[in-house]
Amino acid sequence: MRTPLQTIAWVDGHVKMLDQRRLPGSVDYLLFDDAAGVAEAIRTLAIRGAPAIGCAAAYGVAVEARRLRGASRDDFSATLAHAFERLAASRPTAVNLFWALHRMRAVWSTGASDPPATIAERLLLEAHAILAEDVAANRRMGDLGAALVPDDARILTHCNAGALATAGHGTALGVIRSAAAAGKRVAVFADETRPVLQGARLTAWELQQDGIPVTLLPDVAAGHLMARSRIDLVIVGADRVAANGDVANKIGTFPLAVLAARHGIPFYVACPVSTLDLSIEAGSAIPIEERGREEVAGYGAETWAPDGVPVFNPAFDVTPAELVTALITEAGVVRKPDRASLRALVGST
Question: Which parts of the chain are beta strand (E)?
Answer without folding.
Answer: 8-11, 14-18, 29-32, 153-157, 186-191, 214-217, 233-236, 240-242, 247-250, 267-270, 276-277, 298-299, 302-303, 316-319, 326-329, 332-335
